[in-house]
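Appendix B, Record 12. Input sequence as logged:
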Amino acid sequence: MSLLEGWPHFRGPDFTVVVVVVVVVVTSEFDLQKAGIRGPFLVIAPLSTIANWEREFSAWTELNVVVYHGSAYSRRLIHEYELYYRNEGRVISEAFKFNVIVTTYEVMLCKC
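Logged structural output:
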């Protein structure tokens, strides 16, 4: 349930986390859009909040969000098909399909 849907039902620490996520997302979207910057941006968050980040970005912005997490095979597929535009199979440098990539600290440190 996103903040938009469940505003009256949020209580306690979960409410605080969701509000912080929304404030970051909305503030960054407003400031960056005003400056004409559309990304790419990297969000590194705890695994337990990855889905929340994706959901709130989708609810509050028009940015294309990619969650970069999962097995090595899953990440390889994401890298191959979700991150870059291609021309005849070749990667077009600086032509990203996403505006925001959300991942975890553990994935960033993984060398697999």
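The mean pLDDT is 77.
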